[in-house]
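User: I'm putting together a teaching handout on how multi-component assemblies are represented. Below are the sequence lines for each component of a complex, exactly as they appear in our records. Could you produce the 3D structure of the whole assembly as structure tokens, so the students can see both representations side by side? Please keep the chain order the same as the input.
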Amino acid sequence: MSTVIAPVRETVRAADRVAAARRRVSTAETFSQTLMMAWRALKKMRRNPEQFFDVALQPILFTAMFAFIFGGAIAGDVQSYLPLMIPGILAQTVLTTCMATGTQLREDMEKGVFDRFKSLPIARIAPLAGPMVADLVRYTIAATLTFGMGLVMGYRPGGGAGGVLAAILLAIFTGWSLAWVFTWVGTIARSAQAVQGISMMILFPLTFLSNAFVPIDTLPGWLAAFVRVNPVSHLVTAARDLANNASLSGEVGWTLLASVIVMVIFAPLSVRSYKRHM
Amino acid sequence: MSITELGRTGAGPASDGGADLAVRAEGLVKTFGTHRAVDGIDLEVRPGEIFGVLGPNGAGKTTTLRMLATLLKIDAGRAEIFGVDVAANPHMIRQLVGVTGQYASVDEKLTARENLWLFSRLQGIAAPRARHIATELLGQFGLEDAADKPIAQYSGGMRRRLDLAASLITRPPLIFLDEPTTGLDPRTRGQMWDTIRSLVTDGCTVLLTTQYLDEADQLADRVAVIDRGRKVAEGTPDELKTAVGNSTLQVQLAEPADVPTAVEIVRRVLGSEPILSPEQGRLNVALDQADLAAEVLIGLRTAGVSISSVSVAKPSLDEVFLALTGHEADDEHEAGTEENR
Ligand SMILES: Nc1ncnc2c1ncn2[C@@H]1O[C@H](COP(=O)(O)OP(=O)(O)O)[C@@H](O)[C@H]1O
Ligand SMILES: [Mg+2]
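Assistant: Of course. Below is the structure of the complete assembly, with chains in the same order as your input.
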């Protein structure tokens, strides 16, 4: 049996360290640092009740609640309301989830740990990119739970597994694109509370003034006009087409286009204003 | 002002061997709005020493350190760490410097072990080695028992220790410690001092800031005294003490009511102002020569001022500070708050 003897700590030699120091971060390093930051974001999500609510409970509770409250009034009964409502809930959950991104980034930047990140030899973008990667996991959980709850309540999507999967992927992509808006808000607002407030102001009209829970033709003309151009409506319609009919309608195209436009505008804005903090 | 000049001799930018220095800063400036928080500071830290930056709250200590650590942009002047230019090669600097800030910079939502793991992995240390380092550091800093508890449950001292541990993961050759013992109880403070001393034994160089004069005296090989963004003196703690006067006469009067009389006598005998101690009826008198103590005591005796105790000592850094800056080290109002707004 050999005993482990602690090795004598070798002396730190500054000249060797200077010689070994790299001048910049490589792409491979940036990638693995981003994944570590994603790991951190997911660890924190599991410990944060609020986020847990967004991701896990909201899809379950809202699905049940909305079905029973609006089901009868809007579609006659719960069963026939589900195909209309589940894609709506899907859009809403994903959007609520992506709102948290901005608040969280802001919170991070206010905390001492951000100073640590800044002082480490890591890619400046990693603390921003990590949570964005982790978000993909959050959207997936939220979207899967929404459909799962729908299935439990008797929803039988006509589009089959393929259609549902496509709807989920579309929702994730849209959510991820829109998250850049909230990230941007996160980098410019004064406090985490302010981020929360501003994000709510953006999010509420987007989700509720959409066709997520009610058919457009039941709305007064002026409201219907807004609802029709609201990108969330396009997402909801596209998700309905995919999940219920497995049809790749033009709505899917519109949704993708709107998402890309949002991303092209807000991703550079976010990165630029984030870099000022770094 | 002669003290200032005296303190600065030998501290001017050396024309040769800049690469041999751990830190070399020339004319560092940082302006917030119209307020020059750091107003032209020169520093030279030699490898293997503990260098103390001493100054009251708001003096610009943190700002100086943050500029050197690449956390803040240097507005004017330049800085090199082990010969590497801070502004030109921030990524290299971050590999050479471990930073422990004034407030713990660890993730509150993670455990101590997870924090160390995260910071190790971020710096490219392979998983098994990262695990090993975490365990080793937790042991070294007496955090094993709390290793898997969230930081939110940690005491101030534990947070500080974890924060320092996190700065040592890659065993950087230069370590910045911003007020490492502020807010710690005396026992924890002593432990922190031991830890800091052991870093230097390992071959590291330490640059620390402090508001505590005794801390600089105890730990630092050399001290720069800064006030309102400027360096007012530099030297070994002993040199600074000598600069203020060779010795101090401390007189405890039996009757506090005699203070004005005693002050008058000191003025007459030495032609200088005594420093009134916070304690009732105590005078500190800076002396160029210890002999002069006798003159003062005779003067007091002649005037019938009775003395309960008397001592002649080297001046404390408190007195050094007072003499250098014209106000007391813990005098926050004068030190900067009025300029902060
Ligand atoms: N981010 C900032 N914005 C504006 N003023 C600042 C900022 N950071 C520091 N200051 C000001 O600069 C001065 C020096 O601050 P600091 O370096 O923190 O002093 P110290 O660490 O010596 O207490 C203070 O007057 C402080 O109010
Ligand atoms: Mg400070």
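A couple of points students might notice: Residues 3-109+150-240 of chain B form a domain with the Rossmann fold fold (CATH 3.40.50.300). The two ends of chain B are 28 Å apart (CA to CA).
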